[in-house]
Amino acid sequence: MNRLNKGQREKVRHFQAITDCNESFAAQILRSNNWNLEAAIEYVFAEGVEISSIKPSVLEKIYKVYKDKDEDLIMAEGIGQFCEDLGVDPSDPITLVISRYMGADVMGEFTKEEFFRGFQRLNCDSVKALKKKLPALRKELKDSHKFKDTYEYAFSFSREKGQKSLVLDTAIGMWKLLFGIYSWPLCDQWCEFVEVNHKKAITKDTWFQLLPFAKQFPADLSGYDENGAWPYLIDEFVEWHEEKNMKE
């Protein structure tokens, strides 16, 4: 805790006393809640976060296996090895769930803090232990509420650094990956529409609203109200879809 100021160290001690967790985990949760002690405690108990007792020294050894030779990061090569050790393909949607638990900011790299956070949140002290949790994590992709968390996380995770919107090709790839799980029957048509007619980056509003749109309306889009509060791109898609069906 040497890098923390006096007030932060005091909050870490209070948090540990209440949750019986280790120092590193306490600092991590407090930091993610802007050092608001009450909010951090409420988050842990309200969200059912597992309290980790894993020592940072244990995670340090795992981290070093995958860390880049030149950067204090786990980069593409290390992530590839990490996935291989877990027995999953890097393009497997389960990697998104793991990245969400890590709170990874960008695709293609994990910081030490992110890597530690993921193992601590999942209460795993080895790659073998994490591998055993994969079936449970896969179930999260079938749970509508937790799928929503992963879907929304995918937007920020997939953006290029410093960009507010998501590059179209990346968005299409992510939609096909995620809606392949959710089985939205109009996914291919939506991707065709944005690729041919939109040709621009995807905004956060469009990304976030597409999932409830996919859940709410059947494949024929009956019941859609053009006066509803949907993004303009979804309005245009519905119009395009209707015109296309009329021609066919």
Automatic annotation (TrEMBL):
Gene Ontology terms, MF aspect: cullin family protein binding; ubiquitin conjugating enzyme binding; ubiquitin-like protein binding
Sorted UniProt keywords: Ubl conjugation pathway
Parts forming coiled coils: none
Any one of the GO CC terms: plasma membrane
DCUN1 domain boundaries: 54-242
Swiss-Prot/TrEMBL GO biological process terms: protein neddylation
Function: Neddylation of cullins play an essential role in the regulation of SCF-type complexes activity.
PANTHER family: DEFECTIVE IN CULLIN NEDDYLATION PROTEIN, RP42 RELATED
Protein name according to UniProt: Defective in cullin neddylation protein
